[in-house]
Amino acid sequence: MGATSNVGVAGHGAGGAGGGAGAPARDESAPPGRDRAPTSAPRPFGALFWTAVAAVGVTYVRALAFTPVEALQGPAQKIFYLHAPAAFTALYLAFALMAISSVLYLWLRDPKLDRVAACSAEVGLAFTTVVLITGPLWAKPVWGTWWSGDARLTATLFLWLIILGYLAMRQAVEDRELRARYSAVLAILAGLLVPFIHLTVYLFRTLHPQPIVLKPSAPSMPAEMAVTFALAFVAFALLFVALLRARYRLALAAEAREEADGSGGPN
Amino acid sequence: MVEARGLTRRFGNRWALAGIDLSLEAGDCLAVFGPNGAGKTTLLRVLAGLLDPTGGSARVGGIALPGGAATRAQVGLISHHTMLYPALTVRENVEFSARLHGLAAPHAAAAEALARLRVLDRADALVRTLSRGLQQRVSIARAFVHAPRIVLLDEPYTGLDATGAAALTTALAELRGAGAALILVTHHLEEGLAIATRLAVMRDGRFVRAEQREGVDPAAYAAEYRELTAVAG
Amino acid sequence: MTPVREMPGTAGAAWTIARKDLMVELRTRVAFLAAAVFAVLAAAIFFYAWDPTAVSALDLAPGVLWVIFTFSGLLALNRSFGAELTDRAIDALLVAPISREAVFLGKALANLIFVLGVLVVTVPAVVLFYNVSMSWSAVAALAGVVVLAAVGLVSVGTLFSAMAVNTRLAELLLPTIALPFLVPVVTSAAQATVLVMGGRPGSGVWEWIKLLTAFDLVFVAACTLAYPFTIER
To answer: Do the Cβ atoms of C224 and A169 come closer than 8 Å?
Structure first.
């Protein structure tokens, strides 16, 4: 999965070609550098990560063994405990964080914010991928088709493509500052695009003849299911935060390594 | 005309300008020498209003940086890139520049600038059909069309033939006579020493040496320059 | 010696830039010919890949039209900022005393005229190939949809083209980042075209036109405001 590639940390320091004029001696006496990587990076996968993994594990034990089977959809419905929280996390945590930290980056120009945006994009890509895989897996037994053009799933597909484009662009820019600015602009526009995608997909379905399909209905959900769902959402949110933090630390370490390679070219 | 105090500019963790002080009067021409990567181009781009300074203060033509469009209106920028459109004629290129600067009579202004650089006879030729030297002269006409008060030159003699170089030198003298201040950035000492009133050597984002041109012996200066800019161990 | 001048406003400067771009295009005609030939070729290929007994012309023509629109549009946009980089003419634009928004709007306006020019070739080609008969009111409605869709394509396309040319992937990056943004534009335009060509406009067309208009308003504003952020300062 593209989610684990080291997107966003490629390239050299600010600037392009040239000789080593950025004298290190000057760097020390310079105003406090906000973008300095710590000398010994903390371990990416800490207690938070294992807690999140445990929470996800507990959720699925409960979902599979201690939650009743849905009458109409049968065991296929169980995939929703994965599908729904992944979709929620991707859109409302990962994508939202990517757009918000991009707005803040253009305002404050703090490299940390750019790193947060890049990392949430990557983690978001992982979660959207889960959504795109589990959606058809569920649809095949229940609707009898892998891809039915369901509005939300189609919108997720476009979201996934936007994130891929965002990450492709990050790969294509060497200069850190330029990459941060371009990425922020793209992420903000992507944030504006999401409502339009949803509107388009919605209009397409309402104005276009569609096969009548069975929709999962939420209201009459028994308490056990509701609790399992709630647990799943919490576990996924936790997993998102843990993965984000791990990715952020890896990015920091990669940047520090890059700087140690000593290619801070001027101009 | 141009004043700077402790002017700095940072790119990421690197200081391209690490504290520049300078003061230029109308009619002055400062030649800035230095090796590649010394920060010369950054200095010009900051003074031109293309880049914001990170710290320090500067006034260009009486307007404090960053002054945006008001700063840029007074500046003429010339570099080794011609900044021309090869598919357009000489006249069209210069008129376009005149229009961007809001000149009331772009046609007349373009003709005057082209005449000054002695390329008026080629006014209707396409830029891409001209030699590199002629293109550079057109580029200079493009930058002079609005009679800038501050002229920033980044290796302007690159690619110029003898006629072009002479035309540029004359045009620069005329601009100085009219009260413009010039900053010429180059790593060719002869060019700078020939027209400058002040000299500076730049390295690692700072002026490591600055003086009046008067009384400087070119040969001795060249020897000292080589020593100053030799790569330290 | 100081010529009469008045700082150009955003609209005036944008028009100056658009006019310059169109002049370059008129002189070379390369990009327009490439895009127009692509459009006709694509229409022909779709025609020969079509089994009229299986799919009716009215079902196919709108899709063909808007697929061609998308890709010929991207072809046109790629050229937009590339021309500014050849001799760094973009530096002259940025150092001129005009707003960055004016630069964006000027480039976008030229692109819009270019894309509409290509559509003037594309639409009749598709209509003729698929033998679509339309009333005059349907033609007018289709023209409206075409203009709205072109504005949407050009707003995001111009901004992304300005960014893409400065990346390692250059032209290859533009479709990757721009295509998701064209989903609402192309879907709306294609769906509206289906209804218009089929002679059953009704309220459905209005829904799509409203969506297109909203997209245009949001993204013309957003891209104009975002462009200055793509420039280093």
So the answer is: no
**Which of A146-150, B94-98, B161-165 has the highest mean predicted lDDT (pLDDT)?**
B94-98
Q: How far apart are CA A151 and CA A173, in angstroms?
A: 34
Do C180 and A158 make contact, defined as CB atoms within 8 angstroms?
yes
Residues found in chain A: 267
pLDDT in tens, C72-122: 999 888 888 888 888 899 999 999 999 999 999 999 999 999 999 999 999
Q: Tokens representing A213?
A: 């399909």
Pairing assessment for the beta strands B63-64 and B55-60 based on DSSP bridges: antiparallel
Report if residue A120 sits inside a domain: yes
The pLDDT, as a whole number, for residue A220 is 61
> Is B102 within 8 Å of chain A by CB?
no
- A169 contacts C173? CB cut-off 8 A: yes
Does the pLDDT value for residue A139 go beyond 60?
Answer: yes
Q: Is the pLDDT of residue A211 over 70?
A: no
Please state the ipTM of this predicted complex: 0.91
B50 neighbors B69 (Cβ within 8 angstroms): no
The alpha carbon of C110 is separated from its chain's Cα centroid by a whole number of angstroms, namely 10
Nearest CB to C87 within list B50, B72, B84: B84
Domains of chain C, residue spans: 10-231
Q: Is the dihedral of CA B91, B94, B99, B102 positive or negative?
A: negative
Q: Do A169 and C183 touch (CB under 8 A)?
A: no
Using the beta-carbon criterion (under 8 Å), do C180 and A178 form an inter-chain contact?
no
Instruction: Give the best residue of A102, A167, A174, A192 to mutate against chain C (max C CB count within 10 A).
Output: A192
- Contact: C219, A192; criterion CB under 8 Å: yes
> Into how many domains does chain A fold?
1
Tokens of A171: 């790969």
In this structure, what token pair is assigned to residue C49?
A: 């890949």
Which value, in Å, is the radius of gyration of the alpha carbons in chain C? 19
Query: Do the chains contact at B11 and A14, CB–CB below 8 Å?
Result: yes
Task: Give contacts of C 174-203 with A, CB under 8 A.
Answer: 176-177, 179-181, 183-184, 187-188, 191
Confidence of residue A40 (pLDDT cuts 50, 70, 90): low
CA distances to A157, A166, A173 from A191, in Å: 15, 12, 21
Q: Which of C173, C184, C179 is nearest to C215 (CA)?
A: C184
Could you tell me the pLDDT band of residue A121, with boundaries at 50, 70 and 90? very high
C223 neighbourhood in chain A, CB within 8 Å = 189
Six token digits for residue C100: 């960055």
> Is C230 in contact with A158 (Cβ distance < 8 A)?
no
In a domain, A249, yes or no: no
Residue A200 lies in a domain: yes
Distance from CA of A236 to the nearest CA of C (A): 27
Searching chain B, which residue's CA lies closest to the CA of residue A28?
Answer: B13
- A–C CB contacts, 8 A cutoff, strictly below: 92
Residue B127 Cα distances to A134, A168, B100, C31, angstroms: 60, 37, 19, 19
Q: What is the pLDDT of residue A267?
A: 37
* Confidence (pLDDT) at B231: 58
How do B55-60 and B2-11 pair as beta strands?
antiparallel
Domain that holds residue A94: 77-209
